[in-house]
């Protein structure tokens, strides 16, 4: 199966990308396409710019989704919402195809340095992503990233690691059914 994976962040040290990379280790044997949002640098969306056409990066983002069987992503939370980098890619892509996620099963994750673990952006995504074609099968939020994640070992909190393993197993079962 083909996995399209990304972190909803353009930080070069993205903790959400670190979480995605750790989770992808549980999908060995699958074809993985992990993108970096920094490769999707586009002008800030506006209806005025849209009149001139769509950036090729927006279509490329959609093409990656179209050629995948599932999506694994972890969203950064900036001021209780999506990062500007992700929102801009999403806005452009949604103008080409309102079903951005193209009815693909999704493992949706968040993490943050704080104790809420990106809960605000998770709630927002759970509410709105299905309207844009996401079939959210499982969710996972990792609070206090720097206390619960290690560069070499990944999620180190036994409680969160067990929860993540269960959610990955459930996700795999749901997509194989």
Automatic annotation (TrEMBL):
PANTHER family tied to this protein = CHROMATE REDUCTASE, NAD(P)H-DEPENDENT FMN REDUCTASE LOT6
**One GO MF term:** FMN binding
**What InterPro entries is this protein classified in?**
Flavoprotein-like_sf, FMN_Rdtase-like_dom, NAD(P)H-dep_reductase
Q: What is this protein called?
A: NAD(P)H-dependent FMN reductase
Domain (NADPH-dependent FMN reductase-like) spans 1-142
A GO CC annotation given for this chain: cytosol
């Amino acid at each position: 199966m083909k996995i399209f994976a990304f972190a909803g962040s353009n930080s070069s040290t993205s903790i959400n990308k670190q979480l995605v990379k750790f989770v992808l280790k549980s999908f060995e044997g699958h074809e993985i396409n992990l993108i970096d949002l920094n490769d999707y640098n586009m002008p800030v969306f506006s209806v005025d710019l849209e009149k001139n056409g769509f950036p090729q990066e927006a279509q490329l983002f959609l093409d990656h989704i179209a050629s995948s069987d599932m999506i694994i992503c972890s969203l950064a939370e900036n001021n209780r919402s999506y990062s500007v980098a992700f929102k801009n890619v999403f806005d452009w892509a949604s103008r080409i195809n309102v079903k951005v996620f193209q009815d693909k099963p999704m493992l949706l994750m968040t993490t943050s340095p704080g104790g809420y673990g990106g809960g605000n952006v998770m709630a927002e995504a759970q509410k709105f992503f299905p309207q844009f074609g996401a079939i959210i099968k499982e969710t996972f939020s990792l609070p206090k990233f720097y206390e619960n994640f290690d560069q070499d070992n990944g999620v180190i909190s036994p409680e969160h690691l067990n929860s993540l393993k269960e959610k990955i197993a459930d996700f795999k079962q749901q997509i194989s059914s």
